[in-house]
Amino acid sequence: MKITSVLTLSPTKVEAERPPIIGIPRALGYYEYLPLWRAFFECLGCSVVLSPVTNKAILDQGVRASVDEACLPVKLYYGHVKALSGKTDYVFVPRMISVQSKTYLCPKFLGLPDMLRGAAAFDSTYPQMLVANVNSRLSGGGWDKALMEAAEELGFSRLRIREAQKIAWKAQKDFEHRLIQGEYPPSALAIWEKSGRVLEPEGVLPRSTKRRESAPSGGPRIAVMGHSYQLFDSFTSMNLLARLKAKGVRVITPLATDDEKCRQATRFLPKRLFWSFGQKLLGSSLHLMNEPLDGLIYVAAFGCGPDSMIGEMVERHARRLDQVPYLLLTIDEHTGEAGVVTRIEAFLDLITRRKEGHLLSAKAQLG
Amino acid sequence: MVKDLLYLGVDVGSVSTNLVLIDKWGDVKEALYLRTQGRPLETIQRGLAKLAERYDDHQIGGVGTTGSARTLASVVLGADVVKNEITAHAVAASRLVPGVRTILEIGGQDSKLILLKDGVVSDFSMNTVCAAGTGSFLDQQAARLQISIEEFGELAVKANHAVRIAGRCSVFAESDMIHKQQMGHSLEDIVAGLCEALVRNFLNNLGKGKKLEAPIVFQGGVAANVGMRQAFEKALGHEIFIPEHHKVMGAVGSALLAQETVNRAGGLTQFKGFSMSEEKIAANSWECGDCPNLCEVIEIQEAGQLLARWGDRCGKWENALAVARSEAASEAQLQTAGQ
Description:
Helix content of chain B: 40-55%
Largest interface: A-B, 35 and 30 residues
Mean pLDDT of chain B: 86
Organism (chain B): Heliobacterium mobile (Heliobacillus mobilis)
Strand content of chain B: 15-25%
Helix content of chain A: 40-55%
Protein name (chain B): 2-hydroxyglutaryl-CoA dehydratase
Oligomer: heterodimer
Largest sheet of chain B: 5 strands, mixed
Order of helices and strands of chain A: HHEHEHHEHHEHHHEHHEHHEHEHH
Number of strands of chain B: 13
Pfam families (chain B): BcrAD_BadFG
CATH class of the largest domain in chain B: Alpha Beta
Strand content of chain A: 5-15%
Largest sheet of chain A: 4 strands, parallel
GO molecular function, one term (chain B): iron-sulfur cluster binding
CATH architecture of the largest domain in chain B: 2-Layer Sandwich
Number of helices of chain B: 10
Domain ATPase BadF/BadG/BcrA/BcrD type (chain B): 8-258
Low-confidence stretches of chain A: 1-9, 358-362
């Protein structure tokens, strides 16, 4: 796709001068919307800088700066915003109120920019924020309106913004398609995580030349449920996905179930879930439980309100069917790796021994 | 005549290091219960030296390790199988108590609840970072009341009525106990109350939403405490079985797993021999400063030679050792080929 129509327009002030550098924190919405955001800002001519992959320093900084009541992923977000200070003109902080019709995100997403402002009031090293309010409960209030307002604040023309949105959505849809196909976000995101400019000057989307990562075959099929920002941050998840993969597990994540399947799977519930992530996690879990599945691991963030409820609901359904072994891993900033490793190992043993069919006890009876 | 092979199981936990030898029928021939005292390497060697007095290398058909220091132990011993404590405990209990449905295990710093169905684990839970309700806490309280841990349980059984103590957190439990003492409650009643509080805590934390069915087995170091057993029986309304070797069940399980693994793999063990008890084994650690993660890397050396490394998130130190090994191996191969 070309954006020649825009290029022939006389540039606005910001376009003629150096367009701003936009920082994107590698946390929360990042794992689901990076292609949209990055393609949008690059299309406008901005440079995009990502915060580093989560490390101990970022976590420590986030825990120190945030309010105590926040969940681990939100604490981490603070750390990622701070890690961008001095590297950008603005840090893009979307206020995700509602991204799907008739649903909400959790209150911590709704108050995210305000919580950050609160922290910045006592710390002058915080970078300046570019806030975009996403509220699809208002008419015409989705991502398009949010990005429009944010970019207008920077001084871009409406026409140019609309053109950028078109290309950004193309990038996002392509990414979402790959996730539904079963590709892991770390692999599907990889082309959007490069440093420098990703989008070609004419607005052509990047193509990955790498072979798509596919799950190993033959091993146990385990659904790993949890928020994307929890599962795919290998630091806080203690490399859970890689560990499982190394043990030959075929991992399925919630992203491989599309919204329609999630809706179908939760139709029998007496009440509709109004958290988008919660709906996805519960719907995907229930959908996958109807397929041949060897186990389900629910990765909950400590301090996450919706997780404490959804995790419980998933567990009850797993137990009701009495077919799917269930493991709950709650992760907080103090969680020791040893405990997590022991639980995973024991869970995999449980699955293999179950499959082998009490070989040992049979032997014992013979002996 | 060739003697029957024995299988060595080693469970290195935070408080105790247990070594057992079982015969091919799964009967326990030897059981050592040693205090780890923060020196796992030395304790393993001490245990090996004790066993070496009565057994020799070719009697050992297989070695299994478990416990929080299972990797460390496996490197030192040359283990055939390294398994987590949950699987090891479940294997041991289902062998020694056929038909067991529920395992309560309380060790030095962790507690586990394991549910079984048809001889296989169907569900389990483990305590999180909090150590309230584990053996260390009982140890600490016994020391504070100046009674030995063995007497502790006996005292609880003598109680008239157990005082209600807040067992949610070990710090609060302690202040509550002091308060009850000041109020004039007898020591027996307080000790019994503490046992009940720990049981309540265990069942609330680990047993939430789970159905605990009989037969129930209670194992781990704390199972020796009759007060705890009584409190569990009261809370669950079932008789609680305490296996003879309740203190070393993890080690028994890993020995059984070693037997299974070696038989499956064709009968050869990786055991390095009892001489390892005399080797100079050193562990050292350093903080890698190559990225902000600041991982603590641990290195195990035997007589100046690097045995193993772990602790690095990115795996580069671990890999460096593997690369060095494979290079050395191919070099050795080349040399033999040259000859």
